[in-house]
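Researcher: Next entry in the queue.
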Amino acid sequence: MSIKTADIVDITQRMPTREEIQNAADAVVAIECTMNSNGQLPIGDVYLSTALTDLIRGLLGIVSRGETVTYMPQGRLLTTQQAADLLNVSRSHVLKL
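Model: Structure for this entry, 97 residues:
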C-alpha cells in the first residue's frame, strides 16, 4: 500500500475556527454519551473498537482546546524538510540529529 500526500492531515497552518472548536467539543460529549460500557462507539451497524474510539476522542479533544493537529500513518517516510516542518525546526537541525 503506497502512502500519498493525502494521507497526511495537517491543520497546523491555521488554528481551528471557533465553530470547529465548538463542534469538536460537542462531538466529544456525543461520543462519550453514545459509547457503550466497553468503550466501543456504535455507528450504524458498526461498532468502533475502544482503540479507534479513543483515537477519535483524543483528536477531537485536541481541536476542542483550540490546538492544531497533524497526524499521519506510522510507516510514513518523510524527507528531512518535511520532518523539519513538522517539528518546527530547521532542516539543518534535523540533519544534526
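Model: The two ends are 29 Å apart (CA to CA).
Researcher: Noted, moving on.
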